[in-house]
Amino acid sequence: MTPVVATATKLPFGDRSFDFVIVSDVLEHVPPACRMAVIREALRVMRKVVIFGFPAGPQAFECDRALAEVYDRKKRDAPAWLKEHLLHPFPTESLFEDLGRRECNVSVFGNENLECHFSMMCKEMCRLWNYFFVLSVAVLPRFVEYVLRRIDRGPFYRMIFVVECLEATNLR
Question: Are strands 18-24 and 46-55 parallel, antiparallel or unpaired?
Answer without folding.
Answer: parallel
